[in-house]
Amino acid sequence: MFTVEPAKFVKKLNNLSVEKGKPLILECTYSGTPPIAVLWKKNGFEVAHSEKCSITTTETSAILEVPSSKIEDQGQYTCHIENDSGRDLCQADISVLEPPYFVTRLEPAQVTVGDSAVSGSPPISVAWFQDGNEIVSGDKYEVSFSDNMCGLKLNALDSSDAGPYTCAAANAAGSDECSRAKVPQAKCFLDLLLFLPWQFSDIHFCHGQGHKSAEI
């Protein structure tokens, strides 16, 4: 007597994080009496085989591959299987990590210390350095970070504060930094704005404020 076994996943999808530009590969295996129909969805919408996304299906496995992942490839992926005796599904949340990079960099200026913006996947850690040494908050320096804004305030300056000043940003996918060589002669304030691309419609910039500085 022939028994029809329902379609059922043996190896399900797992949540995954992949760096931007690296391959995104989702694979699951299943059992059941063929033929078994397979359907992939992303955020509830069907995903079809294309130049940007290849789908491979056998009697016991299904593979979805994006050769070069982009930020827009992140989301919830679901694989549906079905035969004459039953159906099953599995899903996974996929994150595409973007290394931080400065959208605008610190440029030489006579009046403002600088303005800059950094983009990347959160969480992003930011640190300030002066002549290669990390700056920590205290009586002389005030390092702040709130509402996606990181700042450096310098008080009671002297010749040891000549510079250069560097802001470094890092996340799980990579790091970036920008620098400026200045000799501050009065109290000044450096601002950087952290730009998270999927939370804002465009890039917002902040402006450094301060008194006249001299070139090194």
From TrEMBL:
The name on file for this protein is Ig-like domain-containing protein
Which branch of life, at top level? Eukaryota
Q: What residues does the Ig-like domain cover? A: 6-95, 99-184
Gene3D superfamilies (UniProt xref): Immunoglobulins
Task: Read off the InterPro entries from this record.
Answer: Ig-like_dom, Ig-like_dom_sf, Ig-like_fold, Ig_I-set, Ig_sub, Ig_sub2
**Annotated Pfam families:** I-set (PF07679)
